[in-house]
Amino acid sequence: KEETDGKDEL
Amino acid sequence: MNIFRLTGDLSHLAAIIILLLKIWKSRSCAGISGKSQILFALVFTTRYLDLFTSFISLYNTCMKLIYIGCAYATVYLIYAKFRATYDGNHDSFRVEFLVVPVGGLSVLINHDFSPLEILWTFSIYLESVAILPQLFMISKTGEAETITTHYLFCLGLYRALYLFNWIWRFYFEGFFDMIAIVAGVVQTVLYCDFFYLYVTKVLKGKKLSLPA
Question: How would you describe this protein's topology in the membrane (chain B) (predicted)?
Fold first, then answer.
């Protein structure tokens, strides 16, 4: 997944 | 991953562990809002459903599992193991006044009208206000144990650091998520009054007590 999809954040 | 994001995550983790240890060591959940803790468990459950659908990184997966695990452990300690010490009379915030409007808002304003995305949005909105039962409880009893204030400080600091993370990401990655940012600002603002009391009282060695 791209870092930019936002869901990498907790 | 930038320094604000990482320290934000660690601050969040510290808050969760401080609370668990406080309850475990003192064998008591006095002064802790069980309702806020149920809301946080609900927040993590609805947000981290993507554990089943996508893999982002080992760090991401581990932290999500730790957050969810600790959230349910905290709820278990409050409502089962140390239930006798739970101060239900002072934990009288009506959570339906938060959950229902937040549920409605997440259906109305989201990035994509799909079940997972709506649940993610719900979790973001709910997290921003999930601490209110705890703050309400403190305002009702007029005081908080010092260890509880450390917990709240770490929890507030986490979202404040995320704001800097989003500023960073906007400038260096051109990334921004309006839902997360607006909810994050609301969440951080809710802690401002508490931050002030923490700095002016707790850091000077005094107990946090509100004027009658």
Answer: Multi-pass membrane protein
Domain of residue B82: give its range: 1-199
The answer to whether the CB of B47 falls within 8 A of the CB of B123 is yes
Give yes or no for B173 touching A (CB within 8 A): yes
- What's the rounded Cα separation, in Å, for the pair B111 and B99? 20
Q: Give the whole-angstrom CA distance, residue B154 versus residue B10.
A: 9
Q: Is residue B102 part of a domain?
A: yes
CB contact under 8 A, A8 and B60: yes
Q: Please say whether the beta carbons of B126 and B98 come within 8 A.
A: yes
Q: Provide the domain count of chain B.
A: 1
pLDDT tens digits along B154-187? 999 999 999 999 999 999 999 999 999 999 999 9
Q: Which residue has the tokens 């260096």?
A: B172
Around Cβ B7, how many Cβ atoms within 10 Å?
A: 17
> What distances in angstroms separate CA B3 from CA B45, B124, B166, B169, one per listed residue?
26, 22, 11, 11
